[in-house]
Specification:
It contains 13 helices and 21 strands. The protein is an alpha/beta fold. A 5-stranded parallel β-sheet has the order 3-2-1-7-19, covered by helices on one side. It has a 5-stranded parallel β-sheet with strand order 8-17-9-10-13. Ligand NA7 binds at residues 132, 138, 140, 153, 170-176, 195-196, 281, 304, 328-331, 441, 443.
Amino acid sequence: MLIIGAGFGGLAMAHALDRIGVDDYLVVEKADAVGGTWRDNHYPGAACDVPSHLYSLSFAPKPDWSRLFPRQAEIRAHIEQISAGWIARSRIRFGWALRSMHWNEQAQRWRVQNTQGECFDARFVVTAMGGLHVPNWPDIPGRESFAGAHCHTARWDHGIAFAGKRVGVIGTGTSAIQVIPELANDADTLHVFQRTPAWVLPRPDFAIPRLVQRALAAIPPLRLALRGALYLHLETLSLTLLRPWTAFWARAMARRHLRRQVQDPAMRTVLQAHYPIGCKRIALSSDYYPALNRDNVQLHTTDITAIEAEGVRLRDGRLIELDALAYATGFRPMDVLAGIDVIGCQDRSLTEHWSLRPRTSNGMAVAGFPNLFFVLGPNTALGHNSVLYMIESQVRHIAKLMRRLRRDHKTRIETTAAAETRFLQRIDRAFPRTAWAGGCRSWYIDAHGHNIALWVGPSWMYRLRTAWPGGDEYRIS
Ligand code: NA7
């Protein structure tokens, strides 16, 4: 088996194979280190907004998380540490970037090629490339002409000196809200360009005392109880949050947070979001609004019309002169496979198969593309809980299938169009009633208004749905 990607998904898949005694696998990784999202997103202030004791794989607990909400460096170090214990480095090939995958029906194998032309023939392929790693460089005219230094939050350039400079940040999503307070500390002037305000709730973060860390290490049931409580808390919250008519308490909390932290009424008005709370990912921050209040920070809400050599041009004609520019403009989840040919049975291209929208069975398998699985494929991201829970549901599902194939001496498995349709219908039935369908612009939704990213419903329901692969979901031969 070939596993593509050495982030949480790929590493968890490798671990699941080890557990069932499958040892003929290789993990390929385009970068030179494990870590995926947490290797790539190292901008100042980068942190997770899921509590640490939930944001870890169930079989790799970390009782000594230093904070309730872990920061990037600690998560990355954790991934490196646990993966070193599970997987021999000889099983990971670094610097191996996928170029194409062709299914060979005669050989019953995928021919997988990298950008240097090197090939592997693999019976099974699992792509665990994540949904959020292709930076969205916005299509603003003149972007290339900017004469100052620039970078994207997902490709932060620590060589850029922001200190004492006139700095711009485009975007006010969850990444921006983390980086802005850090840049505001250093910059001479920080210009924040907001297109849509975010709903912001206080971030109840704190350092976990050593004594608690020791207790969690010494008494595993205590750590499990904490993890379980956090899980149930987020699942329960989402039940009310995702229905606009029951989310009144969250709206009230966010408005109170804004009122308490921003005194200027004009500023409050432009920072108040007017779409349903939860439609975009809710930002958790206690230092974003205070950063905007600083004398050296200016919030701009007029549209950007162009980027010029000297700075950012606004619709009202003003040029905001800048020395450096940070793009906190998010990701392009639909472009994860852009430029990669995936050719299945009868020379069918995955890009064509997905031209209207991504169709999968449970976000993991595609009809006409046998022996190929996705970890965190379409419609399996979460907007309300730890995505690692979804990863674990998926790698268990795939490992169970692998075990069955081995037991029955089978070599080919393919999902059906009917299973794809059932999954999409399940998603589409539930989606319109949620806040995510509330009419805002978000990476969850494609240009035609389809939800391409999120699982809709409790995450335990996805686990139940995928726990016993079988029935007419797959054709095995
Ligand atoms: P997001 O949440 O997609 O936010 C991107 C931000 O960039 C958002 O404020 C956008 O405004 C803004 N944006 C994007 N393109 C433009 C252009 N062309 N002009 C002005 N502003 C623009 O990405 P993040 O990195 O913050 O977070 C992504 C996920 O990572 C998050 O959901 C977590 O799951 C972790 P808009 O709102 O579209 O008007």
